[in-house]
Amino acid sequence: MRRLGKRLYRLFVFGFIAALAYSLWLRQYAPGLWRQKLDPMSFGLIVAFVLFSAAQLYFHHFRYRDVKLEQIDSMDGEAFEHFCGYLLKRNGYKHIEVTQYSGDQGIDIIAQKKGQKFGIQCKRYSGFVGNKAVQEVWAGKEFYKLDQAIVLTNSEFSDSAQELAEQLGVTLIDRNGLRRLMRRLPG
C-alpha cells in the first residue's frame, strides 16, 4: 500500500511538472482547440498539487501543534504510537518506523540516533506501567537485534518495573520525560 502511494505521488509530481511546463512555455505552441482543454486541466492540476502539498506539510509538521498531556491521555494506543514516532523525530531520531499494531514483538517503533538503533515500546496508560512492558521491549530488542530499548509512557512506572529496567539496561521515559520531549513540538 505504501509503495502504491509513493508511485501515485510520483505520478502526481510528474503531472504537476508537465502542467507547469505547459503553462509557462508550451502553451504558445498548442493549437487553439487544444488550449481550450489543456488550460483548465493544467490549472486544476497545479491547484490540486499545491493544496495536496499544503495538506502534507501540515500533516507532517504541525498536526500535533500545541497538543497537551490531557489530549495524549485520551488517545488510543495506535494514535499514541504515531504521536511518539512524531515526537521522536522532533527530538533528533532518524529513520523512524512504526511497526504493525499487533504482532510487533514488543517493539512499537524502531528509530536511529547517533548511529544506534533503538526499539521503543509506547504505553498509553492511566495507571502504573509494570514489568511486562519492560520484559516485552527487552525481548523485542533481542528479536530485532537493536542496540537499545526504551519504554515510553504518559504515566508512571512501578518500582519493580524500574528495578527490572535497571537490571536489563532498558531506558524508561515516564510522564515527566514525555513532557520534556514535548518541548520540541511546534508551538
TrEMBL record:
Gene3D superfamilies: 3.40.1350.10. The chain crosses the membrane at residues 7-26, 41-59. One of its GO terms (molecular function) is restriction endodeoxyribonuclease activity. InterPro entries: Restrct_endonuc-II-like, Restrct_endonuc_IV_Mrr, tRNA_endonuc-like_dom_sf, Type_IV_Methyl-Rstrct_Enzyme. Keywords: Endonuclease, Hydrolase, Membrane, Nuclease, Transmembrane, Transmembrane helix. It holds the Pfam family Mrr_cat. SUPFAM superfamilies: Restriction endonuclease-like (SSF52980). GO terms for biological process: DNA restriction-modification system. PANTHER family: MRR RESTRICTION SYSTEM PROTEIN (PTHR30015), SLL1429 PROTEIN (PTHR30015:SF6). This is Mrr-like endonuclease. It comes from Lacticaseibacillus saniviri JCM 17471 = DSM 24301.
